[in-house]
Amino acid sequence: MNPTTAAAPEPGAAATVTGSATGSTSADEAAALRAASFERARRLRQEPRFPGGPAADPAGSHHERRIRSFQPRRSRVTTGQQDALERLWPKWGLDIDGKRVLDLDQLFDGLPVVLEIGFGMGEATAQMAADDPGTGILAVDVHTPGQGNLLGLADKAGSTNVRVANGDAVILLREMLAPASLDGLRVYFPDPWPKARHHKRRLIQPEFLDLVAPVLKPGAIIHCATDWEPYAEQMLEVLTAHPRFENTAADGGYAPRPAFRPLTRFEGQGLDKGHVVHDLLFARIRDDT
Questions:
Q1: pLDDT in tens, 181-203
Q2: Residues with Cβ within 8 Å of residue 48, at least 6 apart in sequence
Q3: Distance (Å, rounded) from C-alpha 164 to C-alpha 155?
Q4: CB of 216 within 8 A of CB of 184?
C-alpha cells in the first residue's frame, strides 16, 4: 500500500472537521455578541439620561428582591422637558438613594410637607402647588418625562414649593424620612393592577401603611383616589382595618372629592366613559389614643 495514499483522509473527512470548527466558532461569536448586547443594555439602564439630572438607578446598592408596585419606563423626553431637567433638577430634584435622611425643614424652607406618590405628567401636582404655596409637595415618580414636565410647569407658574424625587417611594419612606416629618400623603390614581395575579403589586397594602404611619404627624391625612372600583374597595378595607388610621367620612365610606384635588384630564376622560372616582381620606391616629 502506498503510504501517502494510506495517510490521506477519506473523502469528506476534512470538510467534516472544518465544518465542525466553523460551527463552534459561530456559536461562540453569537454568544459573545449576545453577552455584549446585554452588557450595553445594562449600562444604559444605569446611566443618567441627562448629566446632573435624575439617576437611572439611584438606589442600586439597595437592590432588593421585592415585588414592586411600579414599572420604570424610559419614553421620549421632549425638548421642553429636557430643558427643565437640565436647568431645574440641580435645584429642585433629588434621587432616592437610601443613603441619608432628608431634612424637610431645610428642603422646603420650613413649610409643612405632603408626600405625593406617582404624579404622572405633573399637571395636578403643579396646580395644587400653585393654589397652596404655603404647603410643600415632595412629589415622587420614576417617569423621566413626567419629572421634567412637572419641573417645567412649576417653574412657569412661579411655584417654589415643589421638590421632585426620583426612585422607589418604599425606600424613601423606610430610610430617608424622619419620624413624624410629613403633614400628609397623596396617592392619586395608582396603577390598579387589575389582573388577580397582580393584586400583590398594588401599592395600598397593610405593609405599605406600616411604613407610612411612623413618618406621618398625628392628624395627618392620607388621601387616596382611584377610578377602579375593585381597588377602591380594597383601599377602603385595608385602611379601615389598620389600627393607626381612622376614616374622616362620618359614614365610614368614601369621601367627596376635596376642592383642593384638581379634576385631571385623565380623570375627566374616565368620567366621560362612565367610571366612578372614589376618594378616601383617613387621618393618622395619635399613638396614645
A1: 999 999 999 998 778 886 888 99
A2: 54, 55, 56
A3: 12
A4: yes
141 a catalytic residue: no
Task: Provide the whole-model pTM.
Answer: 0.78
Catalytic residue among 83, 191, 210, 279: 191
Residue 115 has phi, psi (to 5 degrees) of -100, 130
Contact indicator for 106, 173 with CB cutoff of 8 Å:
no
Single-letter amino acid, residue 98: G
Read off φ and ψ for residue 163, nearest 5 degrees. Answer: -125, 135
Contact 137, 129 (CB under 8 A): yes
Q: What is the CA radius of gyration of the chain?
A: 27
Those residues whose C-beta lies under 8 Å from the C-beta of residue 246, and which sit 6 or more positions away, are: 282, 283, 285
DSSP β-ladder status, 278-284 and 216-226: antiparallel
